[in-house]
Structure formats: C-alpha cells, structure tokens
Amino acid sequence: MLLLSGTLPMQSGSIVVGPVRFDRGELRLGDAEVPREMLSIGATAMMAAALETTKALGLEPPMSVVAGDLGDGGGSRMIYRYLTEDAGGLGPSTVTLHYILPLRNEFLGFVEMADYWAKRPFLIADAGALLIAKATRVCDRFDLFTPDAGEISFLADPDAGHPAYVRAALFEVDTTEVPGLIARAYAEKNAPRYLLVKGPTDYVVDAGRVVHTVSEPNVPALEPMGGTGDTLTGIVSALISGGFEPVEACLIASKANRRAGELCDPTPATGVFELVGRVEEAVRRVADEREA
Amino acid sequence: MRAEDLLIGSGFQTHSGAPPPDVRTGCDLAVSVPTEETMAAETRLKERGIKVWDVIYRFGGDLPELQFSRLVKRVDYGGHVMVRVGNMKLTYEKGTGTIVNISGGGCPDIPLLAVKLVGRTLQEAVPPAQIGFTLCAYTLQKAYEVALREWGGPR
User: Fold this and answer.
1) Residue B58 DSSP class
2) How far is A167 from B67, CA to CA, in rounded Å?
3) For residue B89, is it within any domain?
4) Do the Cβ atoms of A41 and B111 come within 8 Å?
5) Chain B environment of A72 (Cβ under 8 Å)
6) Residue A59's pLDDT band (boundaries 50, 70, 90)?
7) How far is CA A84 from the centre of its chain?
C-alpha cells in the first residue's frame, strides 16, 4: 500500500487519514473534500496524479495523510507525529513525504521509527521533505528523491542549507550540467540510492550512475507550470508501490508525465490539474508501449 | 520577513540571512540586531504580535547572507515571462501582468501563495512576504519583486 503525506494550504485543524479519491475534478482525501480553489501545486497534485496512475494500471489506490498548514508548522507537526506513532500500523510498502515544514526533531523521529516497522518501507522524498533530509544528513536513509534543477544544485552544494543559499556558480549550470551536479550530490552523500531529476531532460540515476535520460516529448510550457514535479512524484510513487522496479518506475513516470503534459497542450498559463486529468491516459499509453 | 520589516521601520540595524548552522533546519530565516538591542527588539516584536522562535547570541561574525541578485534567471515564452529566483519560479503574462503560474519550493506556505497570487496582476497581488512564513516564500518574494520591476505596468 502507498501512503502519501503532505500539507494542504488551509488552516490546521485535525489530521486526515484515508483513501485518495479524484472524480470529475473533485478531490477527496479520507472524509475531507478539498475545496476546488485549493487544487494547486503541492500535495493535492501529487496525490491526484498517484491515484490516476493506479486507475490506469489497476493498482491499489493510495492512502493519504494530510493536515492544513499555512507555513507555521502546525499541520506539519501533526503529520510527523502520525507518521512516527501510527503509520507503521497501516503497513505501507511505500511512503512519500512531500510539502511539509522542515522540522528537524520531528522529521528525524519518523526516519528512526521507520526502521522498526515490520517491514521497512520504500521511502520517497520531494519538496520540504527533501530539504530537511539533506539538512539532517539522512539522505541515505531514503530510497528515492525527485529533485528539480534548484534542488539538485542544492544537493550538490555541501554548504547550502536551502536552495536559496546555493552558490551562484552551481545555480548557473543547474539545467545544463546536471550529470556533474548529480555526481557531486552522491560524492557529498546527499542522495539516496535512486534519483529522478526532473527538468528539460529528466535523469534516472541508480547509485550515482545515470541509467536513463528522457527528453521527449519536449513540452517547454511544462517548466513554468507549477506542480508538474508534484505529478511526477505522485506517478512514480504509485508505480513503485505497485511493484515496478524503481528504475523502470522512474522511466515510465518520466515519460508519462511528459506525455500527460503534451496531451493537455499547455501554455505557460495552464494549471496543473489539466495535466492531472491526462495522467491516467498517459500512464496507460506509456505502459503499453513498454510492454510492446 | 515581517520581523525584518518592523525592525527596520523601528530604526534597528538589522541583517537577515540563514540562522547559524547548529540551529538551522533548512527553511528558516534569522534577523540579527546588535547584542545590546536584543531586548528592545524582542519587546518591539512582541508588541506587534510577531512571535520570536528563539534568540541566539553570537559575538562574532554575521549571518550568512542571501545573494538573490546572483540567483536570477528569466525565460521569455513570447506572451509570458518566467522569472526564476533560486528554487522559485513566477510566470506572468506580458501585456496584463497577470500572474499565471507559481512553481517550486517545498514549504507549506507555497501552495497557499500559489492559490492567492495566480490570476491576479503583479500590481494587485498581495506580496508573498505579507502572507508567507518560510525561506521559500522569501525567495518567491524576490522573484515577485524582479517581475514587478521588469514588467513596469500595463501595456
């Protein structure tokens, strides 16, 4: 089972745990209906894309653990606490941590506790979870990161505590010299075994070695579209939880996310939920092509 | 961010930047004031309802500075321009200045900022620093300022 965690852009109330449902543009997480105006970049896009992937391939739908957080950390603390104290009881095989406030002690509490679960889950981090994994020097306790250009230069820079502190020399080359940045990230022990680096070209990396690159279809309007990295993380999470080998899952996810973007024929003003609506079709097509 | 604005407006000599490495979590910001003004600064912040997370005394050096001016990229898509500062991207329509997309970041206030900013013009949008809490929001504020400066008004 796949457990997806992340904050929602609303006041913190209580934590919500339950299945992800997405139908005709309506997203439900457990018993909570997410207001349509809250469907944006972040956990909502990631979770909806994961669900669409499971629909395409007949996989078990994901579970979500979410809480409202406007940036003060209240909802993030609830999520860390749930992951640490209760999530093991669900027995998820894959856990994805996403938009969440980097809180050192709370985060490390979960990372430590995951080792004591009956079966250690495959751990995926993106967004805020990726930042705090590097800051606390526990990248090797994860299995997959899905960084974008700003995040891979951050992982490559041993002194940066946040992408805003990355050296200008690395920032300048973060879309043109990605293999070099990947090598630096591994040399600094700031990467897990697998990386899926998203950008104009996506890189699938296993233990420091680039094993696949994906550049097609090339849809330039996807770069300004907020949330395309979130959908990629959702797709790859669903595939890995569904039993795909990690490198194969990264390759399919990269191709499917690009295909979904192409299918929605975006402009720089297109919203990510138009892409989400194409994920099921895109995943099915790419998976069929791989089988053929 | 709001603390920095208030302290500067109140006449304090401030620097903003990364907290010292031993207490940094990644997305946090710190404001430094001269040691002898710590109490007065804390009192001023509390008067205005701004919560102080922690006070740390350092008697040498300064906060590592943010160098956003060196972390700016632009992409022109014809009818739209994307401004990227660090890990944050803001895209606006050239003619109207309407913000059409926000991308990047990892902290919980970024999806909220996307909801609040997208669909509004650069002129009418609430600046990210007035809503956000985190360094990602601070970075987005810089992208917003660059976009506002470069757009220059309706055409």
Assistant:
1) -
2) 9
3) yes
4) yes
5) 133
6) very high
7) 19
ipTM exceeding the 0.90 mark: yes
Q: Are residues B127 and B95 in the same domain?
A: yes
Count the Cβ atoms, other than its own, within 10 Å of residue B149. Answer: 10
Q: Which domain holds residue B38?
A: 2-47
Residue B104 and residue B137 in contact, taking contact as beta carbons nearer than 8 Å = no
pLDDT tens readout for residues A152-190: 999 999 988 888 888 888 888 888 899 999 999 999 999
pLDDT in tens, A130-143: 999 998 999 999 99
Comparing A25-39, A168-182, B61-75, the range with the smallest average pLDDT is B61-75
Top CATH class of A2-291 equals alpha beta
Let me know: does B26 contact A161? Beta carbons within 8 Å. Answer: yes
Count of domains for chain B: 2
Alpha helices in chain A (DSSP H): 43-57, 74-85, 104-114, 127-135, 149-156, 168-172, 178-187, 228-241, 246-263, 272-291
Regarding whether B77 and B146 lie in a shared domain, the answer is yes
Q: Chain B partners of A128 at a C-beta cutoff of 8 Å?
A: 26-27, 106-108
Same domain membership, residue B78 and residue B36: no
Å from A37 to nearest chain B CA? Answer: 7
A227 close contact with B: CB closer than 8 A: yes
